[in-house]
Amino acid sequence: MANTSDIKNGLCMNYNHDIYSVVEFLHVKPGKGPAFVRTKLKSVTNGKVIDNTFPAGHKIDVVRVERRKFQYLYSDDSGFHFMNTETYDQVALQPAMLNKPDLLKEGTIVEVLYHSEKEIPLTMEMPAHIVLEVTYTEPGLRGDTATNVTKPATVETGAEVRVPIFINQGDLVKIDTKTGSYLERVKA
């Protein structure tokens, strides 16, 4: 058993009959009253984010998780299929375990969190950003970059992303995998 002084970003714990990962935390010592830890917790099973406050010294049940590198292979009716890059074992994950599955490109290396004791996959984490090719968008006007006007664009995975008006079909764009938003154009 650990206590609130051991809380850090990425720590996984049992809380309310579910496994949560710490997204944010803040130790607070008010001028009057006892100290406490304010946290933002994300469920690794369903992705729900909750805010919670623990009193200082509160015992928490830490869950040991392992991060393993997997390569995305394909998707079908049974889920999204990944291959372990070290052991070549394959695992199928359900869409609920994935964040932004429409941005997954074949061959992408991701991290799958495994429960160390039960050997079951909990969730999948994509890299911070991914580079994809624009397969369709309306033609843009050259030099029209003074305003923040955006237009819809379809990328090679089939996802739709809002991009600046100067992006054309065939351009490579860097996309934030947490929000699904455009970051920058990438030179080939």
Report what the structure shows.
With 188 residues, the protein is an all-beta fold. It has no helices and 16 strands. The model has no long low-confidence stretch (mean pLDDT 88).
Fill in the CATH topology of the largest domain.
SH3 type barrels
Unreliable spans are: none
Rg calculated over all Cα atoms: 21 Å
The largest β sheet comes out as: 6 strands, antiparallel
Tell me which CATH architecture of the largest domain applies here: Roll
Alpha carbon gap, first and last residue:
51 Å
**Helical content band:** under 10%
CATH class of the largest domain: Mainly Beta
Order of strands across the main sheet: 1-6-2-3-4-5
Task: Offer a concise description of the structure.
It is built from no helices and 16 strands.
Descriptive key words:
single chain; flat; 188 residues; OB fold (Dihydrolipoamide Acetyltransferase, E2P); mainly beta; SH3 type barrels
